[in-house]
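Annex B, item 7. Sequence and structure tokens for protein A, then protein B.
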Amino acid sequence: MATRKKSTSKSKHPVSRGKSGRPPRQRHAQAHAAHRAKSPQKWSHHVMETSDAMDIEHDVFKTGSAESIAQSLKRSSTKSRRRKGTPFQSAMSMLNFYINRAGRNLPKARRDTLQQAKRKLREAFGRAP
């Protein structure tokens, strides 16, 4: 009868471990849980408050027409001291950020209005539509 030779390693793919001795995924889950315990707000709210994103008017995306949204973003982006890019880049970035974060929860009518606001924003900055 032939006997099998036992391998010296425990598994074919050893798990890399960090300083805490846990695999990376578990450390991430632990940090995520600690953050959730401290802050019940959405991460996108945290990003809007603490990043170098420009300062915008309150609820600018929720009310108004495409023209008013575009004009408000243009005003905010030209006045803001917290932006990193050009005023056009910052304004378009904020509009895209809102559309992407809303995702499927954004009604079709509102999504169409925001897409129209993108076109109006390009016109307001003299860009080709």
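Protein B:
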Amino acid sequence: MAAFRSVLNVANSAKLALSSRTMASHPLAGLLGRLNHVAIATPDLEKSANFYKSLGAKVSEAVPQKEHGVYTVFVELPNSKIELLHPFGEKSPIQAFLNKNKDGGMHHICIEVRCIDEAVKAVRDKKIRTLGEKPKIGAHGKPVMFLHPKDCGGVLIELEQE
């Protein structure tokens, strides 16, 4: 039995080493942190907020983000957040999204990074385009940078400094 446990421990150690080596060799290993939020564009902010309230979630009030052309509502979950987005102003990028997606839908995901400046340099070094020259202050009051969806598997990614 002891020999069997020893073989099992060696196999598990090898599996762990292989999986961590695979992740560590990824070009963005160590850069990306936890998922901060998933953003959903919605044509009816009140209806969407009430949906999550009815499920017992803590839901913030709508906050206008004039510089980004959106209203935001945050839905707090135990391990992350959902950000509801609704157009604010005539040139809202969310209105353009809703023109193509009448019922709304997932707009972007936000991933935390330790240092936004290091992250921006790293993604640019890897030929991943950013949407903007320098980080802006996002809805959480922290620096953010969006990455071009064509360079990110079709997903708009927001990097946010921890």
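Comment on protein B: Residues 1-29 form one domain.
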